[in-house]
Automatic annotation (TrEMBL):
InterPro entries: Diverse_Substrate_Transporter, EamA_dom, EmrE-like. It holds the Pfam family EamA. It comes from the Bacteria. It is a multi-pass membrane protein. This is DMT family transporter. Residues 2-137, 146-278 form the EamA domain. The keyword Ligase does not apply. The keyword Transmembrane helix applies. The chain crosses the membrane at residues 36-53, 65-87, 93-113, 120-138, 144-164, 176-196, 208-229, 236-257, 263-287. It is found in: Cell membrane. Keywords: Cell membrane, Membrane, Transmembrane, Transmembrane helix. It comes from Shewanella aestuarii.
Amino acid sequence: MIANLLLLLTAAVWGFGFVAQSMGMDHLSPFMFNGLRFLIGAVSLLPLLWFFAHKKSLLIGDKKSLVLAAMSAGSVLFFAASLQQVGLQFTSAANAGFITGLYIVIVPVLGLILKHQTGVNTWVGCAIAVFGLYFLSIKDDMSIGYGDLLQLIGAVFWAIHILIIDHFAKKHSPILLSHLQFIFCGLLSIAVSLIIETTEIGNITLAWAALAYSGIVSVGVGYTLQVVAQKNAHPAHVAIILSLETVFAAIGGILILDETLEPRALLGCSLMLAGILVSQIPLRYFVKSWRQTKQTQIQSDES
């Protein structure tokens, strides 16, 4: 129960992070905001890195492999975060949260390329999520909003990023890998910002609250909570609870940013969330639940 509550708190932290990202662009351009928040996030992980290093449980592995892992993960993270941040200028935090959440469905689909096994529940979940995306983002003329399209492309990059982390995390400490990829992504974002954006120092000060939440809370606190909680939680439960970040993104957008969701959008969000949840629950759980219910009913009738 404690682990599940910590995961729920993590989902809330990440969900409200979409609100902070949206508010941050009131003062900063997308690439500068991303650059600063990821560098802040990297710094926020230093105490956690020191703790694991002190416990001598920090797996480093081959240094060349670690550098390759950091550059690969950091590059994909840069594209994913950039698409998300730029897309937030043209869509709501609620839409961004739900569409980004599709990466949970996309991961096992892309896993087919790597010959990963994919259950029936994944395909059912994908079908439901696609219907939800239609109601949330597709307009009457069968076009999709620019911001929603960027979020959808970004979801693919988030999925690729997860697969990269999954591959390299077996060779290196996930926390160390995250720290290095945040540095690489942050520096790359700032480099792009210096080329195509104009940033005033005063605006960085004005965006301090959004930067602090996105960097320290979303990255530092959120990642720490996830690591602690996953030690005592079932993997299936972890995926399902963390997927609720999409719901918290919608709640945050409505409560803080005064966003509204029309009935059609609400239906789309509901279907997408249902698809995400179904994709994370193996079919055997439904069968097992049905059998238990049936057995209980038989025993009740006999008594």
